Every structure is written in C-alpha cells, then in structure tokens.
Amino acid sequence: MSYDPPRPAGRLLLTPEDDEAPARTARLRELGLGERPEPALDAFADHLAELTGAPYAMVNFLDEKRQFFAGLHRPERDVLNVDTAAPAAAGAGERVRREVGRCLERGHGFCPYVLARRKALVLEDVRDYPRFAGNPVVDEYGIRSYLGAPLVDTTHMVLGTVCVVAMEPRPWGRAGLDAIKTAAADLAPRLESRGPGGLRR
Q1: What is the DSSP string of 30-80?
Q2: pTM value?
Q3: Can you tell me the distance from the alpha carbon of 33 to that of 159, in angstroms, rounded to the nearest whole number?
Q4: Which of 69, 64, 85 is nearest to 151 (CA)?
Q5: What is the predicted pLDDT for the residue at 21?
Q6: d(CA 36, CA 28)
Q7: From CA 119, how far away is CA 158, in angstroms rounded?
Q8: Strand boundaries in the chain, DSSP class E
Q9: Are 1 and 122 in contact (CB under 8 A)?
C-alpha cells in the first residue's frame, strides 16, 4: 500500500490545519450538502459497508464547525439518541462507549487528516501510530481501524470523505484501498450533478 503515516512531531493530537474550511463551507452550502441526512447517501454508505465488510461506513462533509455524516451505515442497535453526549459514568473508572451518530466534533476522528493530505488514508490498526492512537474516537467509540478517501469536486475542492471504520484491526490490503478510492472517485462528480430525485447513476 502507498500509505506513509505522518511522523509525530510536537503535540501528537494536533488536528491538521484546514485553511480551506471557509471556502469548503461555502461550496457545501452552494451544493446543498452537509446539513441533513440524505437517503441516497445512506444507500451509498450501505453499499460501501457491504463492499468492504465494515460495520460502519460514512459519507462525511466537514465544514468550519463540525463533521456531518450525510450518508451513514451502522449496525442495527436500540439507540435512543446517538447524537447526544455520552452520559456520565455511573462509577469511578467506568467507561461509557458511545454509538456513532450523524455528527462528530471537527477535530475528532481521522477524516481531517484525509482532507489535509488530499489522498487516501489507511489505518489497519490505529494503535500502531502514536499520532492516531490518542484520538478521542479510539476510546469513546472503540474505533481501531479506518479507511478513507477524499471527495474532490471539479473545482479541486475537497468536500469531505468517504470512509469505513471497524472496532477491531482490519487488514484492508490493496483491495480495500482500491475500493475506497474508487468509491470516492465515483461519488464526487455525482454530488455536483444530482437533481431533486437524488444522485444520478
């Protein structure tokens, strides 16, 4: 695979700078993306999860304040509200694991690195990389493996990502890398040309 992880330097958990955030936010609003769930993008995430065998798949748009999963596939669970903060632990030292919802804080997770790199990111076991092992999603959600690629539009703006995650290490391999890159390349132009009926095939 072609992934060479960023070398840790200084503050390991520093989120990459995103100078394009204001322009990206404007572009997302122009395209009507990143503010609400979309059934067509949920269906795309469902297909991506099936293709990669991952329990979670997302179409993620990042603006200046947050990450929003307009497309989301997750295992069926009895979850009342997955977008609220985790409840306080009942006892000292007890860990409360949260379910993946539609919104994520801007600096959490690994998609901000995909935006900064403008290329796919493969983490078969996030704990193998000091820069990523301390990310809040590792402890809060139990995420151990990540595979993501950027959604680049015709203006060369990175709108967001398509990604999959798992709760155990995954040997994504070349097939996984090719699949996520192909998915991103397929979806990006369809986001710009979609009509009232959703994505065009």
Answers
A1: HHT-SSS--HHHHHHHHHHHHHHT-SEEEEEEE-SSEEEEEEEE------S
A2: 0.82
A3: 9
A4: 69
A5: 93
A6: 12
A7: 10
A8: 56-62, 66-73, 103-105, 121-123, 145-152, 158-166
A9: yes
**From the centroid of its chain, how far is CA 19?**
19
Separation between Cα atoms, residue 166 and residue 154, nearest integer Å: 31
Residue 47 burial (C-beta neighbours within 10 Å; 0-12, 13-18, 19+)? middle
At 96, list the tokens. 């409360």
Mean per-residue pLDDT of the chain: 84
Read off the pLDDT of residues 119-169 as tens digits, 9 standing for 90 and up: 999 999 999 998 899 898 998 889 999 999 999 999 999 999 999 999 999
Tokens at 6, concatenated: 């960023």
Residue 71 near residue 87, CB atoms below 8 Å: no
Dist. CA 184–CA 121, nearest whole Å: 12
Q: From residue 23, how far is each of 138, 160, 198 by CA, in Å? A: 30, 13, 24
Q: How far apart are CA 47 and CA 58, in angstroms?
A: 10
Report pLDDT digits (tens) over 78-118. Answer: 443 445 444 454 455 555 556 778 999 988 999 999 999 99
Can you read off the two tokens belonging to residue 194? 């979609």
